[in-house]
Design goal:
Length: 223
């Protein structure tokens, strides 16, 4: 309840002489010269308002140093952390490309090495296969040449025997000469490797078996 002081009043010269400052006080600190005057004169509503603000100020003042210190740590640490991350980013950008290039180069070198090893293995296999093929072909040719020489000797032997049996009176003598000629022909063709034991010494009475001999030789040689 407002008290009644009648015509009593207190002369205040400041509001008229520093109106700008008092106005700035209200804007800056949310307290007005008018509330101040009303509180001084005992306005309970204004007193309650100002008292609450004062209690709030006491609480704030008590907590202000710790709050300020906490915020200082938070702000400084946040700055330090972000600065550290910025340095990490710069280091990654600076050395990341170099590292990736080294990795890619290593991968390329590794792949080239594997390819070269594979190519060398392929070349070795091809060379080995080619040599084996050449050897097999050459061996076959040698065998064929020997078989052909033997067969030619037998064929000539057969022809000589037939000729001897048909035209010469002394068939056995002619057969012997034909046998010697067949052996000589085989020796000329193959030398020490000539298989002269495959050419049996003939008996004139068995000249009918000559054709069978030729067939046996062919079968034996696989020709």
């Amino acid at each position: 309840m407002a008290r009644n002081y009648g015509a009593g009043k207190l002369k205040n010269h400041i509001p008229k002489n520093a109106p700008g400052t008092l106005s700035a006080m209200g804007k800056l600190f949310d307290v007005s010269e008018s509330d101040f005057n009303r509180a001084v004169l005992g306005d309970q509503m204004v007193i309650t308002k100002i008292a609450d603000m004062a209690r709030l100020s006491d609480t704030a003042k008590a907590n202000l140093p710790k709050a300020l210190e906490a915020y200082r740590k938070i702000i400084e640490t946040t700055g330090d952390v972000n600065q550290a991350y910025a340095e990490l980013v710069q280091l990654t950008q600076k050395h990341g490309t170099q590292t990736l290039k080294a990795i890619n180069l290593s991968k390329q070198s590794e792949q080239r090495f594997k390819n070269e090893m594979s190519e060398m293995q392929g070349e070795h296999v091809n060379a080995t296969t080619a040599e084996a093929t050449r050897h097999a072909q050459r061996s076959s040719l040698i065998q064929i040449a020997g078989a052909t020489a033997d067969l030619m000797a037998i064929a000539k032997y057969e022809a000589d025997l037939i000729k001897a049996s048909n035209k010469l009176p002394d068939a056995q003598d002619s057969a012997d000469r034909a046998y010697e000629a067949a052996v000589t022909g085989a020796l000329w063709a193959q030398g020490s490797e000539a298989k002269t034991d495959r050419i049996p010494k003939p008996n004139y009475s068995r000249t009918a078996g000559i054709s069978r001999l030729g067939n046996w030789f062919k079968n034996f040689m696989g020709i």
